[in-house]
């Protein structure tokens, strides 16, 4: 008799399986495939190590951007400590799982013959999306480019992780107007962009700025401003009389004086919101608003011999152009504004397969970010997202910040991602540089914390994690032999005490510095406690966080998340 795979499950694993079966009524189900990269975090904990010779600092008053070299599961692991609920927008362009060995799972390239290639891809994406969701603010938005190979599965996965109610839209981008001629039946021209919010009730999608063609629509003008005309009869949803009966009422028009009124008067024509199909619709305004605004905002003109009321749509009242779901524009061509642009920046060919059009990324970020947004791309590839963020900052004098995460397979991070960002900052060809600051980190590992010695090791390797978390990089005092370091930015000081015997020395240094701003103190502790009396000499306001417990607490929660 064949042995069931469930016979080797632990009690806890069986309980989780039962919970899953009870919970899953509709949606995406696949055979979860273990991933060595994720399992590694059960044995080792990822930390970050700065590569100092790749640091770029041109203007200390501007925000610091980050490039993380390492597997994105591990960088997302660390970001869950440093940037939980801090990210405004995530943009990703994951591997499309074409079956052409375009990505690896457990160190093996995945091809079309792999019977579990879809399950492996979903396992791979699910783990990363669940980690990524924790990074978003409540107002945060995640954007994902994908093509037909995994679009259907990915949409269901996003519905599962982020909630169907938080789907903001699905865009179609024509990125190859010539069509892909090696397709058997139809020459593919497009790919998709999924846009989801962490909470759709709190998310904001901006309008595009009007271009010259849009402004040309506002050809008419009066004493107030330029305007375009639109019918005063409502169309679309909730436009029927039965749906909004209070917006169905007669308006009277004097053709001689060109006046409108709600009062019936002899010789005045009655006008009702009835469309060309003789359907009873509604007006755009209620009667109070009509009385308040009609004198300046409404007018009547004859259309095929019939008097019609029109509303003035003023240029001064327009917030821009609502984004549409089909993006068709030559600037989205991934060949001319992706591949060829990258070659121009780096000055060499064959640098990276299939980079996105810089304009496609800029436009999606333009409508989902504000001037101070933090943008994360954990499939950073050639670094298009980083360049898009910098160009948007130059465009509107913004202070957006990026975090780019990519592995270094084929030296992509060192030879493409970082050099591209460096060139954009310094300038290339006839393009002027864009002032910005960048720090470059690699992932490294420490043993999973079991012993007290493991705790000390983790704390000794956590300086970069803590500085990134608090955004304090300027060294005030750094003396690891003395057992502490102090860093600052313009708003805050961060003290790190690596050894409980160094608390007194660190406090004396803090008193000498006399920080006038917010002060965070990380102090080594074997558990999650500390002795308030140790800091009694400090008179300024401060907040103490025991380490490594502050880090371990986050990492434990993530490990539980992986098993769900």
TrEMBL record:
Enzyme nomenclature, EC number: 2.1.1.72
Q: Which molecular function terms from Gene Ontology are attached?
A: DNA binding; N-methyltransferase activity; site-specific DNA-methyltransferase (adenine-specific) activity
According to UniProt, the name of this protein is site-specific DNA-methyltransferase (adenine-specific)
Quick one: a GO biological-process term for this protein? Answer: methylation
Top-tier EC class: transferase
Q: Which domain of life is it from?
A: Bacteria
Q: Which UniProt keywords apply?
A: Methyltransferase, S-adenosyl-L-methionine, Transferase
Gene3D superfamilies per the UniProt record, alphabetical:
Vaccinia Virus protein VP39
What PROSITE patterns does the record point to?
A: N6_MTASE
Report the residue ranges that make up the DNA methylase N-4/N-6 domain in this protein: 87-413
Please list the reactions this protein catalyses: a 2'-deoxyadenosine in DNA + S-adenosyl-L-methionine = an N(6)-methyl-2'-deoxyadenosine in DNA + S-adenosyl-L-homocysteine + H(+)
Q: Which family does it belong to?
A: Belongs to the N(4)/N(6)-methyltransferase family.
């Amino acid at each position: 008799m064949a042995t069931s795979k469930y016979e080797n499950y632990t009690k806890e694993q069986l309980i989780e399986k039962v919970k899953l079966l009870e919970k899953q009524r509709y949606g995406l189900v696949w055979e979860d495939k273990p991933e060595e990269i994720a399992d590694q975090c059960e044995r080792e904990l990822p930390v970050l190590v700065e590569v100092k010779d790749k640091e770029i600092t041109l203007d200390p008053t501007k925000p610091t951007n980050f490039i993380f070299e390492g597997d994105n599961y591990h960088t997302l692991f660390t970001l869950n400590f440093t940037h939980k609920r801090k990210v405004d927008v995530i943009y990703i362009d994951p591997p499309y799982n074409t079956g052409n060995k375009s990505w690896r799972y457990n160190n093996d390239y995945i091809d079309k013959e792999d019977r579990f290639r879809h399950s492996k891809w979903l396992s791979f994406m699910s783990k990363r999306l669940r980690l990524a969701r924790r990074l978003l603010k409540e107002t945060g938005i995640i954007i994902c480019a994908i093509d037909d190979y995994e679009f259907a599965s990915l949409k269901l996965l996003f519905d599962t992780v982020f909630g169907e109610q938080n789907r903001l839209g699905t865009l179609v981008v024509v990125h190859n107007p010539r069509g892909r001629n090696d397709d058997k039946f139809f020459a593919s021209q497009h790919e998709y962009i999924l846009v989801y919010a962490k909470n759709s009730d709190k998310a904001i999608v901006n309008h595009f700025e009007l271009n010259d063609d849009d402004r040309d629509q506002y050809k008419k003008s009066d004493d107030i401003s330029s305007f375009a005309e639109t019918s005063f009869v409502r169309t679309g949803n909730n436009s029927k009389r039965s749906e909004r009966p209070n917006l169905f009422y007669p308006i009277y028009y004097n053709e001689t004086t060109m006046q409108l009124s709600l009062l019936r008067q002899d010789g005045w024509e009655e006008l009702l919101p009835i469309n060309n199909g003789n359907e009873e619709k509604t007006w755009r305004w209620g009667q109070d608003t009509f009385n308040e605004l009609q004198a300046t905002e409404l007018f009547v003109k004859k259309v095929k011999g019939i008097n019609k009321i029109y509303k003035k749509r003023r240029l001064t009242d327009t917030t821009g152009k609502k984004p549409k779901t089909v993006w068709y524009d030559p600037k989205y061509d991934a060949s001319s504004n992706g591949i060829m642009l990258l070659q121009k920046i780096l000055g060499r060919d064959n640098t990276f397969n299939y980079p996105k059009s810089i304009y496609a990324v800029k436009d999606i970020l333009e409508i989902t970010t504000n001037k101070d947004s933090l943008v994360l791309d954990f499939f950073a590839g050639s670094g298009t997202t980083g360049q898009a963020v910098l160009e948007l900052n130059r465009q509107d004098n913004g202070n957006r910040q990026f975090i780019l995460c990519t592995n270094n397979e084929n030296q992509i991070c060192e030879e493409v991602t970082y050099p591209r960002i460096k060139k954009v900052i310094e300038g290339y060809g006839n393009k002027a540089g864009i002032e910005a600051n960048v720090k470059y980190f690699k992932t490294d590992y420490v043993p999973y914390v079991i012993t007290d010695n493991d705790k000390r090791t983790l704390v000794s390797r956590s300086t970069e994690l803590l500085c990134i978390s608090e955004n304090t990089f300027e060294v005030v005092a750094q003396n690891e032999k003395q057992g502490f370091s102090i860093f600052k930015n313009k708003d805050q000081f961060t003290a790190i005490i690596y050894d409980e015997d160094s608390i007194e020395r660190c406090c004396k240094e803090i008193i000498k510095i006399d920080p006038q701003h917010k002060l965070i103190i990380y102090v080594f502790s074997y558990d999650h406690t500390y002795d308030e009396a140790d800091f009694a000499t400090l008179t300024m306001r401060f907040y103490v966080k025991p380490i490594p417990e502050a880090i371990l607490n986050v990492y434990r929660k993530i490990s539980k998340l992986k098993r769900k």
